[in-house]
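One example copied in:
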Amino acid sequence: MAAFRWLAPATGFLRGYTHTLNPYVGCRFGCSYCYVRRLPVAFRRDAPWGEWTEAKGGDPAALKDELARARQKGPVTVFMSSATDPYQPMEAKARITRRLLEAMAEQPPDFLLVQTRSPLVARDADLFRRLGGRVRVSVTVETDLEDMRRAFTPAAPPLAARFKALQRLREAGIPVQAAVSPLLPHSPRFVERLAEAVPRIVVDDYFRGDGSGGVRSRLLGMPGRYEALGLADWYRPEVLDRFAKEALRRFPADAVGISAAGFAPPP
């Protein structure tokens, strides 16, 4: 049997990253549009995706040795997480993600992106400060409308809590961004609200960002969901184009990332 490893080689969508790090298997947020629903991991249990989570069984402290070995081969850039949210509800007690961050604070990668939609991320501001400019915390904020959040991601944390977490992290001096991914129907003030909250955004949609040119999103029934909600006009590539154009009026050009290139590590 192969030895347990926290770090896995990054492939596909994750341009610029050498490794992914997933503290959990499964995801309790169960977002309707999540591309992981079409990956083999989503079918490893009889229960539907979104109804189960498992903590991985390795020792988080062992990550230090993995990072040291990886850095002998060159720069190490880590995306946490690609197939789960590192701040699952059970993280509040299990603290697997926090222990992994403690290991990284002692043996840091060259760059770490922490991708989450949970306000629990603000708990670990002390560890992010220790990582300094090597870390960026990316919090998903796909819309500013709670009814849209409930329609597409009913088990995900409320938007107000996510904005508050971003504010707390930013006030603590942590590099942050909002991941508008995928861009959901929103109010005319959404870009303004984002500009008030964060210095940088990454925008994605069902056509550029699901890893298969929109095929996974179609298989998940997203076009039909939009149509059933009377939102068919929002399910078009030009929606992102218009949003990005508006965002560039409020953000510097280098502060509006698009799809995979936007999530990439800084140069």
About this structure: The CA atoms of residues 30 and 50 lie 4 Å apart. The longest strand covers residues 111-116. The chain has a mean pLDDT of 94. The chain has one domain: 7-251.
